[in-house]
């Protein structure tokens, strides 16, 4: 099945208001810039964004553009702000115009992994006795207290990979791998932005990280001069 689409705009055309969307990326690596731009142009609002960080390092390219247009209403993240600089998300948060759920980073990754694996929840000691544990179910295992954390799933995952074949098998480049593979498994529709698309059979099977069964759509991204190599 050929999953390649002609443009980022076509790839996001059915993302409706109120959607829950996972966005890949960590810092400045592995961010689906072209898909974010297409979503900005489409104007989808009321988005619940599941992302490690809601942007700010590359504020003309990353999720900052969606916050400036007030398209995101809730954020589930582990690293929402950067020290020394107020990003577009924080500006809205200080005005109570966007909701925030902070999740410890390891718990964040595991909640997404659980969502992809069909596991509804799990117990972890992370957050016991802290703000992260307030209001959550607790149980004792082997004389230690644990919190119940619920899995995370999304309507869409917008991810970034290095190379794809036309069936959606993906490989990643170095740290750009980050949250992208696990997010690919935890959404009803996964849209992959890639640098290069090859024919089926050209990828080394041992290099494939995300099997095509998890990927719904593929689009070739644009080249952006974002000020880093």
Description:
With 229 residues, this protein is α/β, with parallel strands linked by helices. It has one domain (8-35, 45-125, 136-148, 170-220): Glutaconate Coenzyme A-transferase, CATH 3.40.1080. It is 19% helix and 28% strand. The protein has six helices and eleven strands. The protein has helices spanning 8-11, 33-42, 64-68, 88-94, 105-117, 180-184, and strands spanning 20-23, 47-51, 72-77, 99-102, 121-124, 138-141, 144-150, 154-165, 170-171, 187-198, 217-220. The strands form two sheets. Strands 1, 2, 3, 4, 8, 9, 10 and 11 form an eight-stranded mixed β-sheet that branches. A three-stranded antiparallel β-sheet has the order 5-7-6. A hairpin with a 4-residue loop joins strand 8 (154-165) and strand 9 (170-171). The protein is globular.
How confident is the prediction overall: mean pLDDT? 92
User: What kind of assembly state do the chains in view correspond to?
Assistant: single chain
Give the amount of beta strand, in percent.
25-35%
Main sheet record: 8 strands, mixed
The total of helices stands at: 6
Distance from first to last alpha carbon: 34 Å
The assigned structural class equals: alpha/beta
Contiguous uncertain segments of 5+ residues: none
Record field, number of beta strands: 11
Instruction: Write the CATH homologous superfamily.
Output: Glutaconate Coenzyme A-transferase
Instruction: Specify Rg, calculated over alpha carbons.
Output: 18 Å
Query: Would you identify the CATH architecture?
Result: 3-Layer(aba) Sandwich
| CATH class descriptor name | Alpha Beta
Estimated helix fraction: 10-25%
CATH topology: Glutaconate Coenzyme A-transferase
Number of domains: 1
Shape: globular
């Amino acid at each position: 099945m050929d999953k390649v689409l002609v443009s980022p705009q076509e790839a996001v055309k059915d993302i409706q208001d109120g959607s829950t969307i996972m966005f890949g990326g960590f810092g400045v690596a592995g961010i689906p810039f072209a898909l974010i731009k297409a979503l900005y142009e489409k104007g989808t609002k009321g988005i619940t964004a599941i992302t490690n960080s809601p942007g700010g390092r590359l504020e003309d390219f990353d999720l900052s553009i969606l916050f400036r247009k007030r398209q995101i209403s809730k954020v589930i993240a582990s690293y929402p702000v950067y020290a020394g600089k107020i990003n577009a998300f924080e500006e809205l948060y200080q005005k109570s115009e966007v909701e925030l759920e902070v999740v410890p980073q390891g718990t964040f990754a595991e909640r997404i992994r659980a969502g992809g694996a069909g596991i509804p929840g799990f117990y972890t000691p992370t957050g016991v006795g802290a703000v992260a544990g307030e209001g959550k179910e607790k149980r004792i295992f082997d004389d230690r207290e644990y919190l119940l954390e619920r899995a995370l799933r999304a309507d869409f995952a917008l991810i970034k990979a290095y190379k794809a074949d036309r069936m959606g098998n993906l490989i990643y480049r170095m740290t750009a791998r980050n949250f992208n593979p696990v997010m690919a498994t935890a959404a009803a529709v996964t849209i992959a932005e890639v640098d290069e698309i090859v024919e089926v059979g050209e990828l080394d099977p041992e290099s494939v990280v995300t099997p095509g069964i998890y990927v719904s759509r593929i689009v070739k991204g644009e080249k952006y001069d974002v000020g880093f190599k």
